[in-house]
C-alpha cells in the first residue's frame, strides 16, 4: 500500500472525512459492499471522533452513509481491497467506536439515510442526536448470527424498554422509521431529501450549548445505560455459535441450530 492521501485520512478509503467551517462529516462510502463495516472502518469512525475532539477548529461531527444504506454492521464476508490498515483486524471490540460516540465531549449527530442495523444502530442510539430519513429501517440481527451481543442487551432495553428490546433482539425484526421514532431508537424522522440539512441544523444547535455544562448533562445521561459485560461478549465472538453464524451468512444458508422445518425459504436470515 502506498502513502495515504493528503488531508484527513482515517485509515480506509471507505470513509470520507470532510470539513465545513466548524463542522466535520464522516461519510461511510462502500456501496459495492452495501456499506458493510470492516474493522478499519469501525476504527476510522472512532478516529474521526478523536480528530474532532482534538481540533480547536472543529465543534462537532456528523455521521452519515451513502445511497440507501447508513451502516448495516460488520462485514461478515471479511473482505477488503487491501488498501486498509490491517492492524485493526487484531483489535476486535476495541476497534468499535461505540464508547467514543457515547463519551465524545463534542457533539456527534447521525444522519441515518437508510438501512441501519448492528453496529450502525448502536452508533445512532449512542449519538447525541439521531435524525433519520423516513426511508430508514432498523434491525438488531446479532442473535441470528450466533453473537451474544451484551452491549445491545445492556443498551437497547434502556433505550426502548425491555419488551421492545426483547422483540428486536430475539426475533431480529425490522423496524420502520415511524416505529423507530415512536419507540425512541431515534429522536427525529424527516423527509429523505431534507435529511442532511435537518441533521446539520441539529448538530449546529448542539454545538451552541456550553461545552462544560453539556458534558455534565451527557455524563449523567450516559449513566442510565450502565456497563455491558465485555468478557461474555468476547467469549461469544470467539465461540462456536458465532463461527457458525458467520459461515452460514457467507454461504447464504441458515445456521445449523435452526430446525429444518423452521428455516426460511431463501436460506439466509
At the first level of CATH, the class is Alpha Beta
The biggest sheet amounts to: 6 strands, mixed
Instruction: Detail the poorly predicted runs.
Output: none
Tally of alpha and pi helices: 10
CATH superfamily: 2-enoyl-CoA Hydratase, Chain A, domain 1
Helical content class: 25-40%
The portion of residues forming beta strands comes to 15-25%
Shape: globular
Radius of gyration: 18 Å
Q: What is the domain tally?
A: 1
Strand order of the largest sheet: 1-2-3-5-7-10
SS-derived structural category: alpha/beta
The count of DSSP E runs of length 2 or more, i.e. the number of strands, is 10
In CATH terms, what is the architecture? Answer: Alpha-Beta Complex
If you consult CATH, what is the topology? 2-enoyl-CoA Hydratase, Chain A, domain 1
Q: SSE order, as H and E?
A: EEHEEHEEHEEHHEHEHHHH
CA-to-CA gap between the ends? Answer: 36 Å
Chain-averaged pLDDT: 93
Description:
Helix 4 packs across helix 5. The protein is built from 10 helices and 10 strands. The model has no long low-confidence stretch (mean pLDDT 93). The protein has a 6-stranded mixed beta sheet with strand order 1-2-3-5-7-10, sandwiched between helices. Strands 4-6-8-9 form a 4-stranded mixed beta sheet. The chain has one domain: 2-enoyl-CoA Hydratase, Chain A, domain 1, CATH 3.90.226.10. Helices cover 38% and strands 15% of the residues. The chain has 269 residues and is an alpha/beta fold.
Offer a quick outline of the entry.
With 269 residues, this protein is an alpha/beta fold. 38% of the residues lie in helices and 15% in strands. The chain has a single domain (15-254), classed as 2-enoyl-CoA Hydratase, Chain A, domain 1 (Alpha-Beta Complex).
Amino acid at each position: 500500500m502506498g502513502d495515504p492521501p493528503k488531508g484527513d485520512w482515517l485509515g480506509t478509503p471507505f470513509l470520507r472525512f470532510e470539513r465545513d467551517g466548524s463542522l466535520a462529516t464522516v461519510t461511510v462510502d462502500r456501496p459495492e459492499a452495501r456499506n458493510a463495516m470492516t474493522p478499519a472502518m469501525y476504527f476510522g469512525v472512532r478516529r474521526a471522533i478523536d480528530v474532532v475532539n482534538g481540533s480547536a477548529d472543529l465543534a462537532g461531527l456528523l455521521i452519515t452513509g451513502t445511497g440507501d444504506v447508513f451502516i448495516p454492521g460488520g462485514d461478515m464476508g471479511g473482505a477488503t481491497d487491501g488498501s486498509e490498515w490491517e492492524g485493526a483486524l487484531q483489535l476486535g471490540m476495541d476497534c468499535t467506536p461505540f464508547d467514543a460516540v457515547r463519551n465524545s465531549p463534542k457533539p456527534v449527530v447521525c444522519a441515518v439515510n437508510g438501512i441501519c442495523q448492528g453496529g450502525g444502530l448502536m452508533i445512532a442510539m449512542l449519538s447525541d442526536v439521531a435524525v433519520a430519513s423516513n426511508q430508514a429501517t432498523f434491525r438488531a440481527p446479532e442473535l441470528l448470527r450466533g453473537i451474544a451481543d451484551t452491549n445491545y442487551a445492556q443498551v437497547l432495553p434502556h433505550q426502548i424498554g425491555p419488551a421492545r428490546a426483547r422483540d428486536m433482539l430475539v426475533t431480529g425484526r425490522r423496524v420502520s422509521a415511524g416505529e423507530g421514532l415512536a419507540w425512541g431508537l431515534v429522536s427525529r424522522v424527516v423527509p429523505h431529501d431534507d435529511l442532511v440539512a435537518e441533521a446539520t441544523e441539529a448538530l449546529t444547535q448542539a454545538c451552541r450549548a456550553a461545552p462544560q455544562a453539556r458534558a455534565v448533562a451527557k455524563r449523567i445521561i450516559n449513566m442510565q445505560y450502565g456497563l455491558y459485560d465485555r468478557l461474555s461478549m468476547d467469549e461469544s465472538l470467539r465461540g462456536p455459535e458465532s463461527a457458525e453464524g458467520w459461515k452460514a451468512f457467507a454461504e447464504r444458508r441458515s445456521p445449523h441450530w435452526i430446525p429444518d422445518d423452521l428455516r426460511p425459504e431463501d436460506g439466509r436470515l
